[in-house]
Amino acid sequence: MSLIDTTPSTPGKFKSEKCTPYSAHPFYRNLRFQSSLLKLTVWSSSFLGLILLFFLISSPPSSHHHGRRSTEIDVGTKWETKVRTSAETRARADGGKPLRVLVTGAAGFVGTHVALALKLRGDGVVGLDSFNHYYDPELKIARQKFLANAGVCVIEGDINDEKLLKRLFDVVHFTHVVHLAAQAGVRYAMENPGSYVKSNVAGFVNLLEVCKSADPQPAIVWASSSSVYGTNTKVPFSEKDRTDHPASLYAATKKAGEAIAHTYNHIYGLSITGLRFFTVYGPWGRPDMAYFFFTKDILKGKEITIYETSRGESVARDFTYIDDVVKGCLAALDTANKSTGSGGKKRGPAQLRIFNLGNTKPVPVSRLVSILEEHLKVNARKKVLPLPSNGDVEFTHANISLAQTELGYRPTIDLETGMKQFVWWYLNYYDRSRKN
Ligand SMILES: O=C(O)[C@H]1O[C@H](OP(=O)(O)OP(=O)(O)OC[C@H]2O[C@@H](n3ccc(=O)[nH]c3=O)[C@H](O)[C@@H]2O)[C@H](O)[C@@H](O)[C@H]1O
């Protein structure tokens, strides 16, 4: 069912054999027909008998559960073995109790880093990713291979696929879910609004439905976004601020996700932590993000566009390095309380949290470009344009005091250092891809 599975899903084409001339004669045709009929009767009776015998032997009476195959019959299948092996835990060096985590969006940028960090410290990790074509799927496949080398299996599948999710929960009793699968990107929402509703709203609800019925219910940590602050002008953005005026459909679907999380926490006792990421960047990053395609275009000598505000200033972002965000994600997992429900019913109040994961040092996009020029040793061809009405906001700036207190979150990487790491990775990755 996945990239891992190499069996073709469509049958091959067969050439039909040509008839010999004598067999076309009516006499021979009649003779052949009678003897074929006899053979057919004998063969079909034996065949039916065999099928009946096979069913009698292979179907134990209680092997079906809610229309799904139970785990007993699936044990030993190649797929299940892969999932189970990936979910195996080791003693953690930090002495913590190893978790069994389902990471959705595991072949994505943040997902890859989080899955790897969990696996390296001893947690059991299973990845899930749809490998969609929003950006170069080759990069996602490369991340999948990278994770496979570390012992993390990334299953290809959609978060909207309820049957698949249930099967995963049947095979592994996940203690936690890190939900990072999403339709990302602010500007693309104007091109393909439906994909945001499908992934960020319908997909999230589907995942929560499965989590709510799982036994035990997992604790959930998921990716919200700095974009929920929308057109806020009060800085830095605090979790206490209003988030009811999103500037893009992307932001609106992330805000909807926060409301949906509240509902599932309230009704079903799911422990849910939302993390508002602030423009996360770094090695293995997303090609649709400005720092990534600026790098590509600068190297090609192609002109890049820098947006400026109505006051003539460059737009600014609280760029946050991936390693800092990963630490925040792991801390959110480690401090998450257990969900309180079981059998789809709430048994008591459960934890519901939301944290900003930013860097608290906004940098103008014009400065980002200068940093890239320094690291790439190439001058960019720049054009400055007023910020179009495309869902982008003028600036972001995180107040991280809540994450500092509750999660011990302390970002340490500035944009110069982080971009150096990114450029190093970018040059190596694309140089190697070219050679291959
Ligand atoms: O924090 C988030 O929650 C989001 O972060 C990211 O969104 P953004 O902060 O908008 O990042 P990104 O597109 O890299 O644009 C960066 C800056 O470059 C400016 N920008 C962009 C394009 C361009 O041609 N010129 C330009 O100046 C642009 O105006 C902006 O000021 C994620 O993509 C998103 O999925 C979500 O996670």
UniProtKB/TrEMBL annotation:
GO terms for cellular component: Golgi cisterna membrane. The chain crosses the membrane at residues 37-57. Residues 101-338 form the NAD-dependent epimerase/dehydratase domain. It is an enzyme of class 5 (isomerase). It comes from the Eukaryota. Keywords: Isomerase, Membrane, NAD, Transmembrane, Transmembrane helix. It is found in: Golgi apparatus, Golgi stack membrane. It is a multi-pass membrane protein. Its EC number is 5.1.3.6. It catalyses: UDP-alpha-D-glucuronate = UDP-alpha-D-galacturonate. One of its GO terms (molecular function) is UDP-glucuronate 4-epimerase activity. Its main location: Golgi. Belongs to the NAD(P)-dependent epimerase/dehydratase family. PANTHER family: EPIMERASE-RELATED. Homodimer. This is UDP-glucuronate 4-epimerase. It comes from Tripterygium wilfordii.
